[in-house]
């Protein structure tokens, strides 16, 4: 369970990110509040942006859809603004590689990082060759 301090920190992060989204959308506090189907109130929005209050999940999802930012980033759950950012993260790539190896019946711990990287580079090259071959046959 998260402490009150962790929740407050997450709310402040989320509030700041939502204020960035508001600027990106070119809206005033009142326009942003109206966009979120909330009674226009500069006070409400300033409480959200300062982290004093937390915006509902539905409203954060609406902002995510309008801006292209990930819900999890806007809500302060992680630090990947977009899905592309998340998929480029080396830790996410390593986890995905381990899942693929398990599915192939290979224990990831039995391979060195260098061997695992080589295997995946070869798989990428094979995938490109197959894709080119399939494209040429059309």
Keyphrases for this structure?
138 residues, mainly alpha, 434 Repressor (Amino-terminal Domain), 2 domains, 8 helices, elongated
Main beta sheet strand tally, sense and closure = none
Helix content: over 70%
At the fold tier of CATH, the topology name of the largest domain is 434 Repressor (Amino-terminal Domain)
CATH class of the largest domain: Mainly Alpha
Order of helices and strands: HHHHHHHH
CATH homologous superfamily grouping of the largest domain: lambda repressor-like DNA-binding domains
Low-confidence region ranges? none
* CATH architecture label of the largest domain: Orthogonal Bundle
Total tally of structural domains: 2
Query: How much of the sequence is in beta strands?
Result: under 5%
Shape: elongated
Number of E strands:
0
Mean pLDDT: 85
What oligomeric state do the depicted chains represent?
single chain
Number of discrete helical segments: 8
Report the span from N to C terminus. Answer: 55 Å
Cα radius of gyration in angstroms: 22 Å
Overall SS class: mainly alpha
């Amino acid at each position: 369970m998260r402490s009150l301090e962790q929740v407050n920190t997450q709310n402040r992060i989320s509030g700041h990110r939502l204020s960035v989204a508001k600027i990106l959308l070119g809206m005033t506090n009142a326009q942003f509040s109206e966009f979120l189907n909330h009674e226009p109130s500069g006070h409400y929005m300033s409480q959200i942006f300062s982290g004093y209050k937390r915006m509902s999940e539905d409203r954060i999802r609406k902002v995510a859809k309008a801006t292209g930012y990930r819900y999890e980033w806007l809500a302060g759950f992680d630090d990947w603004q977009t899905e592309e950012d998340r998929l480029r993260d080396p830790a996410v790539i390593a986890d995905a590689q381990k899942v693929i190896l398990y599915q192939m019946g290979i224990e990831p711990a039995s391979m060195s990082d260098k061997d695992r990287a080589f295997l995946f580079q070869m798989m990428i090259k094979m995938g490109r060759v197959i894709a080119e071959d399939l494209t040429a046959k059309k």
